[in-house]
Specification:
binds zinc ion; single chain; DUF7848 domain-containing protein; 88 residues; 1 helix; two-stranded antiparallel sheet; DUF7848; 3-stranded antiparallel beta sheet
């Protein structure tokens, strides 16, 4: 007599949540500056703010930029794959 086990797995994908937006932050890397861009969903405006900072403060031309998003994991096409196995 044996016991059968059923292993089920599904293919998943990850992407940006449809109701979420990408936000950008930036900070100037010039020594002792401390300028930071508050998180914004307007990426072009974020880039513009960095360039404006450089225009006002020559030499402040390096920034750390980060983008953030909310991600969502979903099953790919609702497809699932099952595999039967045996366990003793
Ligand atoms: Zn700066």
């Amino acid at each position: 007599m044996s016991t059968k086990a059923l292993f089920t797995y599904a293919v998943h994908r990850i992407g940006r949540h449809p109701e979420a937006e990408v936000t950008m932050t930036a900070r100037c890397l010039a020594a002792a500056c401390g300028w930071e861009l508050a998180p914004t969903g307007d990426l072009a405006a974020g880039d513009e703010a960095c360039m404006t900072h450089t225009g006002l403060h020559p030499g402040h031309d390096r920034f750390e930029r980060q983008w953030s998003e909310v991600s969502l994991v979903t099953r790919a096409n609702g497809a699932t794959v099952s595999r039967a196995g045996s366990a003793r």
